[in-house]
Amino acid sequence: MRNRPVLFSDDDADALHHAIVAAVREFEYRLSDLVIESTHLHWIVSHDDGMETMVGRLKNRMRQRLGRGRIWTTGYYGRELRNLKGLHDAREYLAQHRGLRMLAGEIVTRQ
């Protein structure tokens, strides 16, 4: 990581959540899973674009929603989930995060 990460507040996390939901509608993607942590996000999105295009579009819309300058470090880690085992394993990993917002298409509420 070349730049220091930006820390997201709870209000920022809510804004990022709304922004990614709006963006997947705009670009006709399908969001099934979402984690918003204080320094990064995880998501599972079905789409027909290249990975770089999809990530760029979603990151840009979230940045625009927060209305400030740079919020992302350079790059991303992404991988294609090609089978049900890969999807299951990814969801098990996401379910362990405190910032879990959506899992398998269902909104998650944590107390």
From TrEMBL:
Superkingdom in the source lineage: Bacteria
Domain Transposase IS200-like: start-end pairs: 1-97
GO biological process: DNA transposition
UniProt xrefs under InterPro entries: Transposase_17, Transposase_17_sf
GO MF terms, alphabetically ordered: DNA binding; transposase activity
Protein name in UniProt: Transposase IS200-like domain-containing protein
Protein's organism: Lacipirellula limnantheis
